[in-house]
Amino acid sequence: MARKPKSFNFEKSLAELEALVETMEKGDISLEESLKYFEKGISLTRACQQALEEAEQKVRILMEKEGKTSLEDINQDEL
User: Fold this and answer.
1) Nearest alpha-carbon partner for 8 in 56, 59, 54, 48
2) In terms of CATH architecture, what is 11-78?
3) Is the CB of residue 30 less than 8 Å from the CB of residue 76?
4) Cβ distance 33 to 6 under 8 Å?
5) What is the reported pTM?
6) CB-based burial of residue 47 (10 Å sphere; 0-12 exposed, 13-18 middle, 19+ buried)?
7) What are the structural domain ranges in the chain?
8) How confident is the model over 57-70, as pLDDT tens digits?
9) Helix extents (H) in the chain
10) Which long-range contacts (CB under 8 A, 24 or more apart) does 13-19 make?
11) Alpha-carbon distance 60 to 44, whole Å?
12) Residue 31 reports pLDDT greater than 60
């Protein structure tokens, strides 16, 4: 799977993806433009998904270091 660049901004990419979808849903663009938007959307989706997977892995590692096995363990300890 392609890696996202270090300067990747999840929120910006998600907003761009939402704008692409909105534009495509209006139906005011040509087939060629729609295909370009779709291709860009797939790329953004993959990059966002990769960022989420990396964040989830970091959370797992941090939880293991703290001896936590689930988010429920964290919530109960904080009460």
Assistant:
1) 48
2) Orthogonal Bundle (1.10)
3) no
4) no
5) 0.70
6) buried
7) 11-78
8) 999 898 888 887 66
9) 10-26, 31-65, 71-78
10) 13/44, 13/47, 13/48, 13/51, 14/44, 14/48, 16/44, 17/41, 17/44, 17/45, 17/48
11) 24
12) yes
Do the Cβ atoms of 20 and 41 come closer than 8 Å? yes
Grouping H, G, I as helix, E, B as strand and the rest as coil, residue 3 is coil
In this structure, are residues 21 and 41 in contact, taking their beta carbons and an 8 Å threshold? yes
Cα–Cα distance, 52 to 11 (Å, whole number): 11
Q: Which residue type, as a one-letter code, is found at position 23?
A: T
**Quick one: DSSP state of residue 6?**
T
Residue percentage of the chain with pLDDT more than 90: 65
Cα separation, 49 vs 52, in Å, equals: 5
Please state the length of the chain. 79
Residue type at 19 in one-letter notation: A
Amino acid identity for residue 45 in this structure: T
